[in-house]
Each structure stands twice: as C-alpha cells, then as structure tokens.
Amino acid sequence: MEQINALRAGVETALAAIKSPAELKDFFGAYLGKSGQIQALMKSLGALSKEERPAAGKRINDFKEEVLAKFKAIEAAIEKQELLKKYENESVDISMPAVFRSPGALHPVSIIRKELLDVFAGMGFTLYEGPEIEDDYHNFTALNTPQDHPARDKQDTFYITEDTLLRTHTSPGQIRCMKTMKPPFKVVMPGRVFRSDDDATHLPMFHQMEGLVIDKGLSMCDLYGLLDSLAKSVFSPDTKTRFRPSYFPFTEPSVEVDVSCCECGGSGCRLCKETGWIEILGGGVVNRKVIENGGLDPDEYTGLAFGTGLDRIAMLKYGVNNIHILYDGDVRILKQFKG
Ligand code: PHE
User: CB of 307 closer than 6 A to ligand 1?
Assistant: First the structure.
C-alpha cells in the first residue's frame, strides 16, 4: 500500500505535466506499459505470502484502473487540443486577395464564324462539316477541275498520297451534301482548309465557309440578294456590294463579290488600294456538270454556291494587317477581341 501511495504521487505530477501526444506516449510507457512501474509492482507480488497476494493484487489492479481512467481523460483532452490546432493551421483567410484568372475569350475567327452562322441560321441554312482530309475526286474531279488545273499542282496542294490530300477549299462539301441531302436544301459548311502558301495575308492553314443552295429555278438574282444581305449583316447595314465576273470550274457563271471598303466607306484608302472596294467572296450558279456529279438532274435542279475566307473577314473587320498575328497565340492580342 505504501508503494502504491508513493507511486500515486509520482503519477499525479506526471499526469499534470502532460501537454503533447509525445508526452502522453512517454507517460504510458513509464507507468502503464509492459515494462512500466505499475507492471513492476505486479511482479513484486511474488515476494508476498500466499495469503497476502490476492488482496495486494486487487489493490494494484484498482490502482491501475484508476490511473488508466485518468490517462484516458487526458488523452481525450490532448486529442481535442491537437484537432483544434490543426483546424487553426488549415483555416482559410477569406480576406486574402483572390488569385486572378483571366477569363477566356473567343478567337477573332471563331467570332466571325459564329456571326456568319447566326446570319445563315436566320436564313434557314443547316450546318455541314466535311472531312479535312479529302480525296482528289471530291476536292477536284467532281468539282469539274481539270487534271491540268494549276490548283492541282503539288506546289499549291498538300498531297498525302497520290489520291488523298488536305482539302484546299470547303467546296468538296458541295458534292457530299448533294449526294446525301434531299433537295431543296440550304447548307453552310465552315472549316479549315490548307494550301501551300505563306506570306503576310496567307497561311498554309486558314478557314473558309461554303454555302450551297439547291432548289428549282434559282438564278444569279437569288445569289445577289442572299450575299448582299449577308454582307450588310456582317459589316454594316449601309455596306454596298457588287458582283464582278470571274471564273471557277464548279460555277457557271462565276462571280467575285466585293463590299464597299469598311475602312473608308468607298472613297478610297490604303486598305482598299484606293478602289473603294474589297473582295470577300467567290460564288456563282453551280455548274451543270457539278450538279450531275452530285447525283442530281441539272434539268430539274439548280444550285447557288459561294465561299468566303473567315480569316480574311476577321482581318478586315478588326483591322489586322498580318494574318500571322491571328495565330501567334499572343494573349495581349487575343485579349482585345472579347467580342
Ligand atoms: N472554292 C472557292 C475558293 O476557294 C470559292 C468558291 C466557292 C467559289 C463556291 C465559287 C463557289 O476560292
């Protein structure tokens, strides 16, 4: 009993001194563990007589229970204290200035693409996207482009094999649409096109948007009305348009479409090379042979087709004089086109 009382005094002081999980562990080892002091008392029972042993053993056990209960209480308090510390360390200071992430923006070419698609959707056009890797047949032959046409030259066209190539325009979509859609229909085909070209106004990759209308009895007048209202929507309501005779193998007659210069309004400036006009489109009445190649009867159906360069329109509209600026990926430039 004396020994227990002596130990109790030590235990009380040691318990009162516990402040951390490490000290908690030390205490357990020193008093409650296998080689701790209470266990040592148990072992000393052997020195007592047989009669004394049970009572002494019970006292030691009671004492151990008492110490263990106190230990558990302190352990719980320490755990709670550690948790609070952890919460404090991990707390977020909501008064800190936020990390600013600059919001994304549409690329100028995407803005133009969207604007044009909106106008076409309003006119009842549907959307079609053909493959970027085309075959010679759809890109040239079916579009009535003769074998010796300069566009077929390896200098202008990226050939993949003898027969496959990166499409040089979106016009092969005309054939694909005629073959799969039931006339009458109106369809727009935006997409990437590729030509072996690289200077201030040309890149090996650029964007076109093709339009195709197939119906009975269409004429150049319909094309004019369509493209004139398109130009007015894209540039401004007072934009004027004019048709100039041109040549494309897949349209007959063919035209090039100019709009009054968006910079000077038609009086003449550097942008329009003092002419007052800027070319933005090629188009025409679909050649009878092309209608036939599309699987339709040219005596029954007529077609109107046109194609425009999205990069070119973006450059004109936003006053960008070098096409490379559009694709350098310089955020300082792109930031200016929040649209
Ligand atoms: N495909 C022609 C080009 O790339 C444009 C065009 C499309 C012309 C449709 C007429 C009809 O220049």
Answer: yes
CA distances from 285 to 147, 212, 252, 266, 305 (A): 22, 10, 5, 28, 6
Mark which of 61, 89, 117 sits at the end of a domain: 89
Question: What one-character-per-residue DSSP string does 246-306 give?
Answer: EEETTEEEEEEEEEE-TTTTTS--TTTTTSSEEEEEEEEEEPHHHHHHTT--TTT-EEEEE
The alpha carbon of 308 and the centre of ligand 1 are apart by a number of angstroms equal to 7
| Structural domain count, the chain | 2
Residue 98 has which token pair? 């936020």
Q: Whose CA is nearest to atom 12 of ligand 1?
A: 282
Instruction: Say how many Å lie between the CA of residue 229 and the centre of ligand 1.
Output: 19
CB distance 108 to ligand 1 below 6 Å: no
Q: How far is the CA of 319 from the centre of ligand 1 (A)?
A: 24
Nearest ligand 1 atom to alpha carbon 254? 10
pLDDT confidence of residue 293: 98
Residue 325 lies in a domain: yes
pTM for this predicted structure: 0.72
User: What's residue 47's pLDDT?
Assistant: 86
**CATH code: domain of residue 186:** 3.30.930.10
Examine residue 102 and state whether it is found in any structural domain, yes or no. Answer: no
- Within a domain: residue 246? yes
Q: What is the mean pLDDT of each run of 10 residues along the chain (339 residues)?
A: 87 92 93 90 87 90 92 94 91 86 87 95 97 97 92 88 96 98 98 94 95 97 95 92 96 96 90 93 98 98 98 91 91 79
155 shares a domain with 64:
no
**Residue 206 near ligand 1, beta carbon < 6 Å:** no
How far apart are the CA of 142 and the centre of ligand 1, in A?
14
Q: How far apart are CA 182 and CA 177, in angstroms?
A: 9
156 and 49 within one domain: no
- Residue at 98 is within a domain: no
